[in-house]
Write a structure and sequence with these properties.
By secondary structure, the chain is an alpha/beta fold. The chain has helices at 16-27, 76-88, 134-148, 165-180, 212-224, 259-268, 286-289, 318-339; strands spanning 6-11, 32-38, 46-49, 52-58, 69-72, 92-95, 126-128, 150-159, 231-238, 245-253, 272-274, 295-303, 309-316. The structure holds NADP nicotinamide-adenine-dinucleotide phosphate.
C-alpha cells in the first residue's frame, strides 16, 4: 500500500457490501481515511471500525470533496445520480450496482485479472465492478484461460441470500425460523420461499428466458478475459445459504490441460486457494469461504464427455471477496496509478 492513506468514501456503508468493505479494510490493514455515507433514513448512525465508532453521514453533493475514490454500494438509481457528483470533486466512483456496466468508456475490472484497465476510469470518472458471481469466476478462470484458452463455459451459480443484501438475509432468517417451527413463512419479497427450497430465478427474465444475472456471465467474462469469442451459458439458482456463492463450472479449452496442470496454474495464481482432496472429503464449501479473502477452487477434474473438457467447483464470499474486496482493490489500484 502507498504511504499516504487512501481517502475513501463508502456510500451504502450501512448495507451488506458496505460493512464488508470495512471488514476488508480491517483485515488487510489498509491505511485509510474513511467517510461513511448512507441515506437520511438510515437506521444506523455509527459503525465500528478498528475499535472506534465512526459516524455515518447523509450523502450530499459535498460528500466526495478530498476523497480519492468512492465505493458506491447502493442501488443503481443512486449510483447513477452520485457518480458524476463524485467525479466533479475529482473522486473516482467505483460502481457495484451495475448502473455503469455497459456504459461506453467505463472499464469493467476485477483486480487480479485486468488491473491495467482501472486507469481508463478517468474517461468517465467511473470504474464498474462486475456482478457478484463473476468476480470469483473471472479470478478462477483467468489462469486456466492464459494456459489453455477457454472456448466455452457452462456455469451454474448457487446464489446465496446475501446476494440480495440485507433484505435477502432477513428474509431467509424469517423463513428458516418459521419452517423450523413447523409453520409456512409469509410470502417472500423475493417471490418464492428460499428456505429449504431452490429457486431457479435470480434477476429478471429477458425474452429468451434468460435472466439478466445469467446473461451477465458471458458478457462480463468476455470483457474481463479479453476473449470476444468465448461462448458461455449460465443458470442461476437461489439456494438457502446465507453467505458465499457456489459456482459449478464446466469448460472446454482450445489446448488440452490435464486436471493436474490446471490445479498447478490455479495454485500459482494469487488470491486463489486450491482445496482439492476429494478422497479425504476436502473441497470448497460456503462455510469455509465466509470472511475469507480467497476464492476457493476444488473438484478439479477432466470431463471425459468432451475433448479438452474440465470441471471445477468455485466458492467465494460474495460480500467480502465478490463485492467489497474487489472494490477496495480497485480504489488501491487507482490511487497507485495516480500517485506514480
Ligand atoms: N450483496 C452482494 O453480494 C452484492 C454483490 C455485488 C454487487 N452488489 C451491489 O451492491 C449494491 C449494494 O448491495 P447490498 O447487498 O449492500 O445492499 P443492501 O444491504 O440493501 O444495502 C444498501 C445500502 O445502500 C444504501 N442506500 C440506499 N439508497 C441510497 C441512496 N439513495 N443514497 C445513499 N445510500 C443509499 C443503504 O443505506 P440506508 O441504511 O440509508 O438504507 C444501504 O447502506 C447493490 O447495487 C447491489 O446490487 C451486491
Amino acid at each position: 500500500m502507498t504511504e499516504k492513506p487512501l481517502k475513501l468514501a463508502v456510500v451504502g456503508a450501512t448495507g451488506s457490501v458496505g460493512r464488508a468493505v470495512l471488514e476488508d479494510l480491517e483485515a488487510r490493514e489498509i491505511k485509510v481515511e474513511l467517510r461513511l455515507l448512507a441515506t437520511s433514513r438510515s437506521e444506523v448512525d455509527l459503525l465500528e471500525f478498528r475499535g472506534d465508532e465512526l459516524e455515518v453521514e447523509t450523502v450530499s453533493d459535498r460528500s466526495f470533496r478530498g476523497c480519492d475514490a468512492a465505493i458506491l454500494a447502493v442501488p443503481a438509481a443512486a449510483a447513477r445520480e452520485l457518480a458524476p457528483k463524485a467525479w466533479a470533486e475529482g473522486c473516482l466512483a467505483i460502481d457495484l450496482s451495475g448502473a455503469f456496466r455497459s456504459t461506453d468508456g467505463v472499464p469493467l475490472v476485477v483486480v487480479g485479472v485486468n488491473d491495467a484497465d482501472v486507469a481508463s476510469g478517468e474517461t468517465r470518472g467511473v470504474v464498474a465492478a462486475p456482478s457478484g458471481p463473476v468476480v470469483p469466476l473471472a479470478l478462477a478462470l483467468a489462469p486456466i484461460h492464459r494456459e489453455a484458452s477457454i472456448q466455452r463455459i457452462v456455469a451454474t451459480i448457487l446464489f446465496a441470500a446475501s446476494g440480495s443484501g440485507r433484505a435477502g438475509v432477513r428474509q431467509l432468517e424469517k423463513e428458516m425460523v418459521a419452517l423450523l417451527n413447523g409453520e409456512e413463512p409469509d410470502p417472500s419479497d423475493l417471490s418464492h420461499r428460499v428456505g429449504l427450497n431452490l429457486v431457479p430465478q435470480v434477476g429478471a427474465f429477458g425474452p429468451a428466458g434468460i435472466t439478466d444475472q445469467e446473461a451477465a456471465v458471458g458478457v462480463e467474462l468476455r470483457r474481463l478475459l479479453s476473449a470476444p469469442g468465448l461462448a458461455a451459458t449460465a443458470t442461476a439458482i437461489r439456494v438457502p445459504v446465507f453467505y458465499a456463492h457456489g459456482l459449478v463450472v464446466n469448460l472446454r479449452t482450445a489446448r488440452a490441460i490435464s486436471a493436474d496442470a490446471a490445479r498447478a496454474v490455479l495454485r500459482a495464481a494469487p488470491g486463489l486457494k486450491v482445496i482439492d482432496a476429494p478422497g479425504e472429503r476436502v473441497y470448497p464449501m460456503p462455510m469455509l469461504a465466509v470472511n475469507d479473502d480467497a476464492v476457493l477452487v476444488g473438484r478439479v477434474r477432466e470431463d471425459a464427455s468432451q475433448e479438452n473438457g474440465l470441471d471445477l467447483f468455485v466458492v467465494a464470499d460474495n460480500l467480502r471477496r465478490g463485492a467489497a474486496g474487489n472494490a477496495v482493490r480497485i480504489a488501491e489500484t487507482w490511487v497507485r496509478t495516480r500517485r506514480t
